[in-house]
Amino acid sequence: MKALLIYFIIFPYTLFSQQLSNESDKWLNESLNNKIVDSKELITEFIKYDFSKLWLQQQETRVGFIGKNFQRFYIHFNEIIQNDTNPSFYKIKGSTRVINNICTFEGKIKIIHIREIDKVQREESLKTAVDENDTELLRRFGSKKFIILTEYIFMEERNQKWSGYYHGIMKSNFYIKNNIVHYNDLDFSDSYSHNLCVGIWKVIIPYLK
Questions:
Q1: Is the separation of the CB atoms in 104 and 156 below 8 Å?
Q2: Domains in the chain: boundaries
Q3: What number of CA atoms fall less than 13 Å from residue 75's CA on the CB side?
Q4: pLDDT tens for residues 178-204?
């Protein structure tokens, strides 16, 4: 069974026991070990929040590729619902498109890490903003910023052409204001990114005409 690496910008509980691909695992470790990422784990503190709207925003700007030939890949999330009894899990429905082949899928997202980012820069910039009464710096650094790392698996319906499943890691940026999760649009730069995903696609059943 051939596996294709997939990267895209902007996922049954038992399936989360599957081992991550080398690329996904490497990217997860690099994300956690980045110097701007704090080492303190915050899942327990933040699990009470609903992150579904975070993943549903900015869908029109998503770009990605799949396979060795870097084929253009499109994905859209139609619905994301937090599990009432286990809030670290979310149920998702959506669709994918490669060339003219469209598949619908269902799957789950599992929160695996939440960390604060840019902590040192925020403290330094906030001090400067207060000293200089800089309203723009206050806007950008007045709120703490975080990343949330999740494991996803999307199962495309078996009766569709070239159907398969996607499994990997997604990283998103957010901040909390008025006790609500917000998409991080506070600070844009050349290196800015959001809802980044790395994973694999594997076929699950041959398509029969």
A1: yes
A2: 3-116+147-177+188-203
A3: 29
A4: 888 988 776 655 445 567 888 888 886
Quote the pTM value: 0.81
Length of the chain: 209
Q: Report CA 194 to chain centroid distance, whole Å.
A: 7
Q: Which residues contact 70 (CB under 8 A, 6 or more apart)?
A: none
Asked if residue 52 lies in contact with residue 80, where contact means CB atoms within 8 angstroms, the answer is: yes
What tokens were used for 198?
A: 């790395």
